[in-house]
Write a structure and sequence with these properties.
The protein is built from one helix and six strands, in the order ββββββα. By secondary structure, it is mainly beta. It has one domain. It has a six-stranded antiparallel beta barrel with strand order 1-2-3-4-5-6. The relative contact order is 0.26.
Length: 74
């Protein structure tokens, strides 16, 4: 399943910045398995967190409501 997800750039005041929406790909259990930005670049999960990083950069994003992170840490 593919749907839009809300992301927030880490280390910035995301409550005052506009909402960023990326495209997330989910498995059959509803876990986020892939994340793409607005120009179709794939981000990589930072293991053990709800954060994703854009390859080749230091841009790190928090994914709002990433249930996969919650399932891994419970």
């Amino acid at each position: 399943m593919i749907k839009k997800v809300k992301v927030h750039k880490m280390f910035e005041e995301f409550h005052i910045l506009p909402v960023i929406q990326y495209v997330g790909e989910f498995d059959d259990k509803g876990r986020l398995i892939r994340l793409y930005n607005s120009i179709n670049q794939e981000l990589d999960r930072i293991y053990g967190t709800s954060q994703w990083i854009l390859n080749g950069t230091e841009e790190v994003y928090f994914v709002e409501g990433d249930s996969n992170f919650q399932a891994e840490t419970i």
